Structure formats: structure tokens, C-alpha cells
Amino acid sequence: MTQPTDIRRGMSEHLGTALYLAASGVPPLPLRAGKLPFGNCPACARNACGGRPNMKTPGPCACPQPCHGWAAATTDTTVLNSPAWESAWRQAAAVAYHPGGAGVTVVDLDNADALAWARETLPATRTVTTTRGEHWIYRGTMASSNAVRPGVDIKSLMQYARWLGPGAGATAPLPDAVRALTVKEPPTARRAPQTLAAPLRGHGGACRHRTPTYLERGIAMAVQRITDARSTIHATVYRTFLAVLSTHGGCGCLTDAHVARLFTAAQAKGESPRHCTDAWTNALTTLGL
Residue 149 in 3-state DSSP? Predict the structure, then answer.
């Protein structure tokens, strides 16, 4: 049986962590058992408060108690220490934070396959060990989205992540490859050419490929990503095309041979030539290339 002194000790530890985070500019909130946020307080039950915030727009909760999920996160130490929050800290099982409010994005990697993908695809950054994998933390914010690929969630704006310590490594800028994970393919009716012209020559962007190896490795990784896909093949092909173009599309280094390798890999997974062309065109349109 939990003793009152244990409850006070746990409350003190969680509140102490929250105050440390707030002082660092990271907005914390208490979590109850199961890594869940606290439910609406009586004043906000059944949306009696009008839903401010309504969970559809960024911003802190106007309620004096820690409800409204991620929007309860705050750096206001007066609020964190207030009597209205005392019950929540007493019941809290952990502390979470709002990544978007801290100006960061968390790539939540939940298994070994997701970790292997990140190590091959994403730039090194600050990492935090979790119970099932790692959090990779990048500087910058974006829309949050779950299951952007198997074992990978994006937690940033309007989302919370459990605080598991500061982690290790330097925090890198948010890369385009992460942003591309949440981009949905536009309708193919916008542009649907049936043949592939020579891609992206003459755009005049600065070339970041110090050696041909950099480009070759990127194409090989993209082919492998498509080949390894076990579900959502249609979306995987588009996201892979988008990632390739976001990295290699601006300087005109891509050739027909490179694109043919991508198309061949996609068609081996069951995609039609028409869909490959549509997906490539839509990726060009999305990136303005």
C-alpha cells in the first residue's frame, strides 16, 4: 500500500522536474498512469468551457487546472505550484512536455527496425532512450502525426512527449526528410503526365554533393526503403520520391538513370508506371521544382 510519505515524495519529484523544465523554457504537464494526460476538470467537463483551447489550434489552456491534454503544458511556475494543480501532481505517474512549445520536434522510434531506418536516413541529433526505442529530437516545429511509417511517430505541435531526461548529443535542425514524412500526396488529377522527361536539369541550385558517392548512397537508400515496405506502398513511394527530391532535386544532379532505379523499385512492389509518374510529378509540384 502506498504511504502518504511516498505520495508526497513522488509529488515533490514530479513537480521538481516540471519546475526544472519550465525554468529551461520547456512547458511540462503531469501524466497519470498509462502515460495519459489528466482529463478535463469539472468546470470543463462535457466542453462546458467552450473548448478553449479546442485542441485544434496551438496555445495554452485557459483553465486553472491541468486539463485539455497537451495544452495544459505551461512554463508559468505560479500555475505549476498552484493549489489547483496540487491534486494532479499528487496523482501523477510521470512528467511530459509539449515539444512544439519548446521549439522542437520529437521523432519517436518504437522498435529496432525504426531505429535502423533513422540511423540510415536521418542526420544525427540529440537522442533520448525510451522503454522501446529512442526519441530523436530536432530543433524546429511541425505538425504532429502518428504512424508516419512503421514504428515512427512525430510529436511536435499540439502533442506531448514523456520526459525521460535531457538525452545525449547536439540538437540538429529539423531536416526535410522528417517534414516529408507527414506530407500527404496531392490528388493525381492535378497533373498526370504518362512519360518521364529528363528530371530537374538547369535549376541552378547549389550542389551539396561533394562526391558522387553522396548521391549514389541516397538513391540506394531510397530504393531499399521502397523495397523494404510491407504496407502503405502507395504512400511510401510518394514519401520516398519527396525525400529524394528535397535532398537532391535542386541542383540538377539527378539523371534519368537515377529516377529509373526508383521507378523500377516501386513497380517491383506493385505500383504501375502511371502511378510512379504521378507520384514523381506531385512531389515536384509540392516542392516547387
Answer: strand
Return d(Cα 89, Cα 284) in angstroms, integer: 49
The predicted model gives 63-90 an average pLDDT of 90
Q: Please report how the helices 233-248 and 273-287 are oriented relative to each other, as an axis angle in degrees rounded to 10.
A: 50
Eight-state DSSP code of residue 156: B
Cα–Cα distance between 165 and 25 in angstroms, integer?
15
Cα–Cα dist 242/71, whole Å: 32
- Residues 67 and 60: their CA atoms lie apart, in Å, by 10
- Buried (b) or exposed (e) across 76-99, using 16+ Cβ within 10 A? eeebbeeeebeebbebbebbbbbb
Region of residue 25 (left: phi > 0; alpha: psi -120 to 50; beta: else): left
Q: Could you give the CA distance from residue 210 to residue 176 in angstroms, rounded to a whole number?
A: 19
Phi, psi of 112 (to 5 degrees): -65, -40
Per the CB < 8 A criterion, the answer to whether 258 and 219 are in contact is: yes
Residues in CB range of 275: below 8 A, 6 or more apart = 188, 234, 237, 266
∠ Cα 169 140 223 (to 5°): 80
Strands 152-155 and 104-109: antiparallel
Q: Are the C-beta atoms of residues 50 and 63 closer than 8 Å to each other?
A: no
Tens-digit pLDDT profile for residues 131-174: 999 999 999 998 899 889 999 999 998 899 999 999 999 999 99
Tell me the residue type at 183.
V
**Predicted confidence (pLDDT) per residue in 96-112, tens digit:** 999 999 999 999 999 99
SS3 of residue 139 by DSSP: strand
> Residue 27, Cβ neighbours under 10 Å: how many?
24
Indicate the pTM of the whole model: 0.64
